[in-house]
Write a structure and sequence with these properties.
The structure is a homodimer.
Chain A (H helix, E strand, L loop, with lengths): L1 H11 L4 H5 L8 H12 L3 H7 L5 H10 L2 H11 L13 H10 L2 H10 L2 H8 L4 H9 L3 H12 L5 H4 L6 E2 L5 H10 L9 E5 L5 E6 H5 L7 H4 L7 E2 L4 H11 L3 E5 L5 E6 H19 L11 H28 L1 H6 L2 H29 L5 H33 L3 H31 L4 H28 L3
Parallel strand pairs in A: 1-2, 4-5
Antiparallel strand pairs in A: 2-3, 5-6
């Protein structure tokens, strides 16, 4: 019964692949998960081959993440040679390791042979040295050399992400020759959007987009239509930098060259899109005070990745506590101060976070530079003053009414103005300072900003109160 | 003198365009800015034509953002017809409006005619209705119809972002016919990576990648090599959803179809990359409590965009203040409580933010769904307990030594454990709840989470202290 269900599932696929395994929220459909789970349980390889093996790599990836952890390896084993290793490039690192570590090297080698080099590298780089060597040893020579070359480049460099398969022709070829070559050549990349022009030593001379070739007469020489590639990517370039090149110049793919300007591979936009995602992820998580942890991490590694941040925060929290300690006498005489002081601090913390978020993001997207920094600082100061006045008045009235003491209202209002200005300045100056010092502003900004706003808030409020009421 | 400098600048451009206008930090070079500024001042159109007009659209965009606000319009005016309107798609919305609003509609219309439809729409959609109509009226009929069609689709829909220029052929054509057609056709899109196959009513039948055409014999029929496009994008689809399709299936471009499955345009990866950026930006800014404000916004609109958030925070801050108010008696008797209570609250706030950040991000990237939610919740609870115990012990010892009162140390330790668990649960449950309710978890999560941790922190600490010391 499952099998028939499976078969009409297949018949249904071409016309509505999307609707097939996902529900409207984009989650893998429950009934499909149940079917797969059952099939894994009774080792129904036929069903799995027919319904899972044929899915798109990213769909298999989502499926692997959705099923029970203990079912993952079983699924891969049952699919055997029908399992598309590319799917492993679509899952969390933790899940990938867990699966790859337990797959026999022979099977990995066999599968790797089928992959584009960039996907192969993506999987190989996670393996420990000896496993990797054992797998590489089992690959055909040219394949092995290509992958070694890519793996020799530093982690998260363009060289690691590049695809070593590409089409390159000499400048004196005609468009006709080039087209005929591509018609006859068996071993072309899986898909490509431009071809490269090189000299006999593989030095990169230029590139031609495929549409350019298609709109040109056969007898035209390649050198006549090739454009100098203004943005060849050095293999050592950091992937983030490469991604910025792609975004700025709307590239679909870019030549990757070694230190001698020789063409070694091609970087494609789909890899770059992944990079853009990773970078955004990093920024968000760092702002939130979590390292590069993944959803599939276990309790211990999660605790570890968050510990340092919390420890630092404990230190800064005690700093602001000791500021309060300076005024314990005043608080004893006027308990309302203890009740109101967190409000001043928390408003400052929020305003500061707002400014900091904008600053950090502007720095990440390079919208903020030395030329407009001055203007932005003035703007944020202005915002701080305005918000300060507004919320000072609101809070002043509330506090005054709450404790039937309008002098107290005046005190908290004054403290509020001071703290919101401090917040604005800390929110923009601290990230800029960290950036100047070469640190990533996203990492530490928020802890510093809130330290400033907490201490300033408590000190301003309690200090002014102590002075004004002479306590 | 500036001009000669300008000329050798031009001679320098082809081989190192990058190095040309940017310094190593990726900022527009100061000396270049100075030259441009001076040229604008003495209306040196020759220099500007030679050095600015030839830059890449995104470089002109960066330049417009880097120069003094009052110079921007002047630069555009001086460049006249040599100004590449596409550059306006690369600058902040505020700057784009400021420039476009002051350009004569005639000039805009002339420039718009030169643009790809997606760029034209990008600029037209910001204009107020009458200006837009006046400009459209000055465009050739077909152009006008195309743009109208795109503008009729809802904001930030695929239809708005699509390019209405594309190459489409009937299925019975041969590869040879297709190539010849592209060779002879004058009016092809600026660049494209696939051609579409349609029936006489423009119904989408399939697509063929250009590399596929190039590796196929001339006499082969298109229908033999075309693949059914599994992922045509409905014109009404939200651009974010469309972007997810691109990412999941590694698309370079996708057909955009109307409700009748008729091909109306093509969505390209470069637009999608921009969308991915906007979405990441949105998430980061919302988590930081700032609306979709831009760096070029002025003080007032910035104050406006942050006001609501601060107001809500004021409310929640007063809520936690009133929790403290419940225990003013205890604080009066034991002032140390006032000093220590912010530590408990702030640790909870940080731990909660950590969990919330991971949850919100996981929801945004669809990594978190009903199938693994249970596991993640258990993990976060575990993390909360572990961190709770660790920091409870640390804080207990510190507080005990600080105030020479180890009972107080025990009290704060207990409160810490409770608050870090509350933080973990709030951090994951609140975003999930908001998501279930169809709200964007990024928007309101952090204010709710910190409310929970502040109130829990103060209540647990002061409550336990009051009970334990019987005050």
């Amino acid at each position: 019964m499952t099998t028939t269900d499976g078969e009409d599932r297949i018949r249904r696929r071409p016309d509505d692949e999307e609707a097939d395994i996902y529900d409207e929220d984009g989650n893998v459909r429950g009934d499909f998960l149940a079917l797969v789970g059952a099939a894994i349980a009774d080792r129904d390889t036929l069903f799995l081959r027919q319904n899972v093996a044929r899915l798109h790599e990213s769909e298999i990836g989502d499926l692997l993440e959705a099923i029970q952890p203990d079912q993952r390896l079983a699924l891969v084993r049952l699919l055997g040679d029908d399992f598309d290793m590319t799917a492993l490039t679509e899952v969390d690192e933790a899940i990938r390791r867990e699966i790859v570590d337990q797959m026999p090297n022979a099977q990995i080698a066999a599968a790797i042979g089928e992959l584009d080099s960039d996907d192969a590298v993506y999987i190989l780089e996670d393996l420990d040295k000896e496993d990797r060597e054992e797998i590489l040893a089992q690959l055909p020579f040219t394949e092995r050399v290509r992958l070694r070359r890519a793996l020799d480049y530093p982690e998260s460099s363009a060289g690691r992400r590049m695809q070593t398969e590409f089409v390159a022709v000499p400048p004196f070829w005609t468009v006709g020759q080039t087209i005929d070559y591509m018609r006859d050549e068996e071993d072309l990349p899986y898909s490509f959007s431009q071809i490269f022009v090189i000299d006999p030593t593989f030095k990169l001379l230029g590139a031609v987009d495929l549409d350019q070739i298609l709109r040109t007469k056969r007898q035209t020489k390649i050198e006549q239509i090739m454009r100098e590639t203004n943005h060849p990517v050095p293999a050592e370039m950091d992937q983030e930098e490469a991604a910025q090149l792609f975004e700025q110049y709307d590239l679909l793919s870019a030549a990757v060259v070694d230190e001698n300007g020789r063409l070694v591979g091609v970087l494609t936009i789909d890899d770059v899109v992944d990079v853009i995602h990773e970078e955004a992820d990093e920024d968000i998580k760092r702002l939130g005070g979590v390292g590069d942890e993944e959803l599939s991490d276990n309790v211990l590694s999660t605790v570890r990745s968050r510990f340092l941040w919390l420890l630092i925060n404990l230190g800064t929290a005690m700093l602001s506590a000791s500021v309060i300690g300076l005024f314990d006498g005043s608080i004893e005489k006027m308990i309302a101060l203890a009740v109101l002081m967190p409000i001043v601090a928390s408003m400052g913390g929020n305003a500061g976070t707002q400014t900091m978020t904008v600053t950090v993001r502007a720095l990440a997207t390079r919208d903020l530079d030395i030329y407009n920094a001055g203007r932005i600082i003035r703007r944020e100061a202005g915002v701080g003053v305005l918000n300060g006045i507004v919320f000072a008045s609101i809070m002043g009235v509330i506090a005054g009414t709450w404790f039937h003491d309008y002098q107290l209202g005046g005190v908290i209002a004054a403290a509020m103005v001071i703290n919101l200005m401090a917040a604005a300045l800390a929110g923009i100056l601290l990230p800029l300072l960290l950036d100047k010092m070469g640190a990533d502003p996203a990492i530490a900004s928020s802890v510093f900003v809130t330290t400033v706003t907490d201490c300033t808030g408590f000190f301003a409020f309690l200090g002014i109160a102590t002075w004004w009421f002479g306590i």
